[in-house]
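QUALITY CONTROL LOG
STEP: pairwise intake check
CHECKER ROLE: data steward
CRITERIA: each record must contain a sequence immediately followed by its structure tokens, with no blank fields

ENTRY 1 OF 2
RESULT FIELD BELOW
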Amino acid sequence: MIYKDKNELQKKCAKIIEPDGNDVRILDEAKLKSDLIDDLIFTAVFSPDKATQEAACWLIRRTGAALGIMSASIQSLYEAMGREELKGFTVPAINLRGITYEAAQAVFRAAIKGKVGPVIFEIARSEIDYTKQRPVEYACAVIAAAIKTGYRGPIFLQGDHFQINAKKFAADAAKETQAVKNLIWEAIEAGFYNIDIDTSTLVDLTKASIKEQQKTNYSLAAELTTMIRDLEPEGITVSVGGEIGEVGGKNSTVEELQAYMEGYLEELKKMGESLKGISKISVQTGTTHGGVPLADGSVAKVKIDFEVLEKLSALARSKYGLAGAVQHGASTLPDEAFDRFPAVATAEIHLATGFQNIIYDHSSFPGDLKGKMYDYMKTEFKSERKEKDTEEQFIYKTRKKGFGPFKPEMWHLPADTLGKIGVQLEKQFSFLFDKLKMTNTQGLVEKYIKPVDVPLEIPAALK
């Protein structure tokens, strides 16, 4: 049910949950999980009335807090990894581009079964646009899924690739930088207490020295870090990530990591002696976002340079106290690759396209809807098709952009269809958690993460 005004919303909530100042009191948890939470998230996403959407979002976030489900920073756990108190596992960072409420439930079901500790839910700057999911909507979908599945504890929301567009930066550096600053502000307000700054697009390989090549990258990363420290809520240290090599480009080197970190720390020191820096560093080791599609639409096998990844992770920890290196573009790798990441002490791994492929390619996904979506892409994005692309290659590379325009149709697929897709997603999440050595790590979150309940003023529609 999607509520069109605050009166409908308040009537539905009666005797299940009720506002109590700036908090929520839960009156009937069983009905909340079985019925109301579905209505709240669909209202938050699809209500035609903005005030009602905002009210539903507030109710979801504060209801989550009442149940102990709060946004948290992974900073203290990563600091423990930097001290080498913790090792032997790789934290998964999962991008959910479509049917986010359903997909997040699959993550939580797999995590609960496997007693999995830290799992990051993330969305990139580009994904926010083409999936039509602003940070607060994404946060609410994840929190609602936690409520629905009975998960309790902190959740980790992350801004992935909050990236500077190189062409836009060249045209107007101040405007493009401000756009990323505005997004950081919006994300932190929505409870994203983990932010990956991606200024690696500004690395200039034509410069003579490696430090000169990285200068704009590390200088702007330091500036954005300072802004994040100004915005973070009291009692929370936002976990910030940096990046030294653009994914899909040349492989990163030890020298680049050193040049970036030396320059970054120098710049950060100028802005404040006690400012805390990044907690991890993203590197390039041979992957490409989404994988490389072949002529038939299948994905080419990629060879990751695990030796480089291991060296960079070790240096990041031993010299700079970081959790280690971060691997992007990994979800389409062959199954046998995933247990290598914890073996070489990779701190974090980003996973996205593989889950998108499960949704699109599932036997239960309606063929007529898929055809409609593909026809839309052939028309709307035909300018993006390269001359040598087969139709299969073109569709594979652009179908991620169907999640936004067709969000209503996908969220309203029959419950049986969504359920079957959810089962397949859950199976894949369980597989990955096992391979990444994340099973039975729940106690680490309880030991190292102390969530802070950040106040959230009740919206006018509920007063």
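ENTRY 2 OF 2
RESULT FIELD BELOW
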Amino acid sequence: MKFESVSDLLLERIAAGDFPSAVYLVAEKGTVVAVDAVGRAVIEPEVIDAGPNTIYDLASLTKPLVTGLLSAILIDQGEISLDDRVADLLLDFAAPDKNEITVGEMLTHTSRLAAWLPLYLCVDEPDAIVAEIARTPLLRSNDSVTYSDLNYVALGRLIERVTGRDLDDAAIEMIFEPLALDRTFFRPPSIYRRFTAASETGNRFERQTCESEFPHLPIKPGAFRSEVIWGEVHDGNAHFMGGVAGHAGLFSTADNVFRLAHQFLPEYSTLVSADICELFQRNFSPCGNEHRSVGFQLATTPESTAGTNMSPASFGHLGFTGTSLWIDPVKERVFILLTNRTHCHELPFVLLNSVRRRFHDLAAASLEANS
């Protein structure tokens, strides 16, 4: 079943040039209610239509779906706590200005680490990344929340230290295999390329960002790709890290994301306890510029993309490539929208926040009409 109003909206935005393809899934009380796929997952170098099982580069959805969830599992097991000092687990953080940063502050983006750095221009090999992040001055902003890739890059390394496994191996053993996720990976095998939505041609966006915001950093040979990025991670730092990182690198389908989404709801989670699920709804920055829980943004954040029909307890996350997941724990609803807005699109890429809000409102209205 599909929701005609939602499918029509996405076809309209494809015609307007916002993105070439979209897959959505809407669920309520543990049951998938609507799914549809529209547009073309690949336009160059060949044409491939999107389908319900098309695999998308989830970009920053990696943060809650892997790093946040693994952290929650480790908290549930007593291996780490929100109050643990990062410096006790990653010795590079034993610096005067970062010695007191906690695991909880990184998970909720309240650590005051910078939002982003082109780490691939700052260091020569991935093993030096944590030290580079630890050397970077903290922000002096009055904002209590600064959404930062660096928090989750470091958390990915912290999880590796605690588990004694590479991050992708930890994810496979602790999440993907227990949930029987058949199309969820870091570094998708090449046999899945034709089933995967394509991304940007090269890294024009990141190159422009580096040239404008970090002109002091020389551009290294090979730092930026020139071909269509298809079947490998779009994010430059994650690519530099071999396709596996705490902030980006996860590929998945709408159905697999739905199964992951259930792990954040106490009624359905099989990986963490109900008490730990509460952390995904708790507001850790109630007086801040943004309302953050463990791994997620809350719907009470001003200008969030939740729309007008979700409960205030709802939480969600976005991905740069054009992906999003929102969960309403009160009504037990899950809203997944996957697009590849960076594919075959000149800069600047379209900001999808208004589309996401409209998608959520139309989907919620359709659920109410069908109830």
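INTAKE CHECK: passed for both entries
DESCRIPTIVE NOTE, ENTRY 2: The two ends are 14 Å apart (CA to CA).
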